[in-house]
Amino acid sequence: MNERSSIGLRVALTTLAMTLLVTSSYAATEKVLHSFNNDGTDGFEPIGGLTFDASGNLYGTTIRGGDSGDGTVFKLTPQGNGSWSETVLFNFSGTAGELPYAGVIFDGSGNLYGTTCGGGFYDYGTVFELTPKADGRWAEKVLHSFSNKDGACSYAGLIFDSFGNLYGTVYGGGPGGGGAVFELMPAAGGKWTEKIVHAFNLDEYGGGYPEGGVIFDAEGNLYGATGDNSAGLVFELSPKTGGGWTEKVLRHFDVKDGADPHSSPIFDAAGDLYDTTYVGGPDGDGTVFELIPKTGGGWTEKLLYSFNGNDGDYCYAGVIFDNVGNLYGTMVEGGAYNNGTVFELMPKAGGGWTGKTLHEFKDTDGIEPWAGLILDAAGNVYGTTQGGGEYGYGTVFEITP
Asked: Which of 205, 213, 269, 376 is the most exposed, fewest CB within 10 Å of its CB?
């Protein structure tokens, strides 16, 4: 991959001895729901994840293709015969935005929101809204165009707070030059006001270049991860009385426990954080880790799993939980065909985690799953691959464990 591969430069890795969790493969059924086709109308190269609507339709983005070549927002609708039909909801171009790397999210009224890495009024990316129209089409509105002064290029998706404000990250630019966390607030007349929550300045301790988004805890604090001048970090942003936010670094990585985190963390029911690193760990191929809050302050890191190439290389996306506490994720490369894998991690009764490879991509069903996964109510797993499939331009897939 061209643009994204240059972002996650492989760190010089030191191999350290430790006991690795046992990884095994077991049968799971994979089905390609859609193969993207560079035919001038369909999008191609999906990098972002998927989202469901209440009717079971899937929505996502492609960074290229469509009638202008600048990417699309698409919808997949299940048919009665087990197939899925695709509809292109919007074609990006110019001031409307270009290169939508992240997926989209819904608000309570059925509108879609997302980000782009390019285009907009200043050509540094946008935050956009898509509103369904009575005739079945969707109208796009640019809520904000980044100017580089406030940030440049958003790779991450968005989240809402309880007041309807949007939060996200930009990879570069901003007051400190290392990207930023931003907030968009709806204002009178349908306009939105942007505010920088935190600007990264690329110093040794504060991080920079966030590619993943942020999440809230129950108290309104924000959490995310960035690369920095070393191996990366996990941060917390806490709102201050009277305005502003305070940054606290929860964990600095040191390569042996992981390096270069690119995704958004998640919480479990106990308030522990879970995320991945792109590289690092004992074999250098990426890790899954947990951060546990300590009584009295601070966080303890636990390395849950380290990848070794056979079970996957380079964990770009984050992980998700199922309803019994298992974790699922994707690896960009590795596996039997070196095209990437889908994995499951299961907690063991006496402690530790057991890894299973759910699927190894073979090219015909996909290459390089950069995005994270989603689950349906039946426990089926859905995701995208950047390449491969029938036409070689990426897929949407379903895995039934």
From this structure: 269
> Are 244 and 281 contained in the same domain?
yes
Cα Rg of the chain, angstroms: 20
Structural domain harbouring 349: 20-44+331-401
CA angle 27, 376, 337 (to 5 degrees): 35
Structural domain count of the chain: 2
Q: How far apart are CA 183 and CA 195, in angstroms?
A: 5
CATH code for the domain in which residue 104 is found: 2.120.10.30
Prediction pTM value: 0.92
Can you tell me whether residue 358 is helix, strand or coil?
A: strand
Domain's final residue, options 330, 364, 380: 330
pLDDT bucket at 62, cuts 50 / 70 / 90: very high
State the Cα–Cα distance between residues 40 and 120, nearest whole angstrom.
Answer: 22
With b meaning 16 or more CB within 10 Å and e meaning fewer, what string describes 229-255?
A: ebbbbbbbbeeeeeeebebeebbbbeb
The single-letter DSSP state of residue 94 is G
Residue 271 and residue 390 in one domain: no
d(Cα 354, Cα 345) in Å, to the nearest integer?
A: 6
pLDDT for 295-351, tens place per residue?
A: 988 999 999 999 998 999 999 999 999 999 999 999 999 999 999 999 999 999 988
27 and 148 co-located in one domain: no
Return the closest-CA partner of residue 275 out of 285, 288, 284. Answer: 288
- The Cα–Cα gap between 48 and 35 comes to 15
Co-location of 112 and 161 in the same domain: yes
Does residue 152 sit in the same domain as residue 130?
yes
Check whether residue 269 and residue 381 sit in a common domain: no
The one-letter amino acid at 48: G
Residue bearing tokens 């958003």? 154
pLDDT band at 204 (very low <50, low <70, confident <90, very high): low
HEC string of 182-238 equals EEEEECHHHCEEEEEEEECCCCCCCCECCCCCCEECCCCCEEEEEECCCCCEEEEEE
pLDDT attached to residue 4: 43
